[in-house]
Amino acid sequence: MAAVRALPALAAALLLAAAGQASKYSREANEGLAAADGKRREAGEFRVVRLNQIWEKAQRLHLSAVKLAELHSDLKIQEKDELSWKKLKAEGLDEDGEKEAKLRRNLNVIMTKYGMNGKKDSQLVDTNYIKDGTESDTLDDPRLEKLWSKAKTSGKFSDEELDKLWREFTHHKEKIREYNILLETVSRTEDIHKNVINPSEENLVKEEILHNKHRELKEKLRSINQGFERLRKVSHQGYDTTSGMIQQEFEEPRVIDLWDMAKSANFTEKELESFREELKHFEAKIEKHHHYQKQLEISHQKLKHVEETGDKDHLNRNKEKYAMLQEKTKELGYKVKKHLQDLSSRISQGLQHNEL
């Protein structure tokens, strides 16, 4: 009987011990994850030192959650390109230094885009596609400001359509900024080239580089002119297709640009139709990215609110959700930018073929 009575006590003791072990293992697992995360942070987010320095600087600037995720995607693309270039350089395949110059140019665009180029007049582009603080942003171009003001007060646009139109305006602003950076680079290269007294084979190579840069400038300027004309029409006429107004093949500004350029490239009807289908998939990918950007911004605001309440359990749950959304937004952002890079390269080759 004594042995029978002892069984419940023994079972309880075993349960307590098991619970203690589970707690211990859970604690050790969490500590292990924390240590691994700490090592990752210590090792750096990127494999290129200067990109880590930019990332750390951005975090000190307290950029919004969405802008940080966007910057992370841009730096990932830059990292990939820089590592590819290092491999080419080691094989002696960038003797003229053109690829290295393009990398510097791209990095300059990123620094300017996120206000980290050290210039006081540098402004952040509204890359989160959420109508938040839109009124305080400027378009840095009187013509764009005038068109935007006219569109806002016309009564022809719903709130959703104004959001869409603002995305088009800010995208156009970024295109102008990239064009100006490239123009400045070309001007500096030309000045150096003019000061060379004795022509040589090396200088002939540099002339070819200048020719390629001028062609790139021409493509960008054509895209800017097409984009402005479209913004002018939409601002005056609206999006309503039932009244004979602007009819859209696509809605996302980057996809609209690609489609306009593709129609000017040397594609057959079959290739153009295939490209159109690919752009539809690309636009769906961008929309998914937009969705996660919005969810990330909402999660960030909620996390700040919960931090003020001091509820630890609630805070931990929100931190987990925020971290998940942050990683997903970064991942999708990288995929979108990589896909955009590939599509742009294909169109550029088609446009170059037209000139031959």
Number of strands: 0
Cα radius of gyration in angstroms? 27 Å
Instruction: Quote the beta fraction.
Output: under 5%
Order of helices and strands: HHHHHHHHHH
Shape call = globular
Alpha plus pi helix count: 10
Query: How far do the termini sit from each other?
Result: 101 Å
Helix content: over 70%
Unreliable spans are 1-5, 21-38, 120-136
Average pLDDT figure: 78
Largest β-sheet summary:
none
Category by helix and strand content: mainly alpha
Name the descriptors.
single chain; 356 residues; mainly alpha; 0% strand; globular
What is shown here, in short?
The chain is mainly α and 356 residues long. The protein has helices spanning 2-43, 49-60, 65-90, 98-113, 142-154, 159-194, 201-237, 253-264, 269-309, 312-355.
SSE diagram, text form:
Elements: H1 2-43, H2 49-60, H3 65-90, H4 98-113, H5 142-154, H6 159-194, H7 201-237, H8 253-264, H9 269-309, H10 312-355
Helix pairs in contact: 2-3, 3-4, 3-10, 4-6, 5-6, 5-7, 6-7, 8-9, 8-10, 9-10
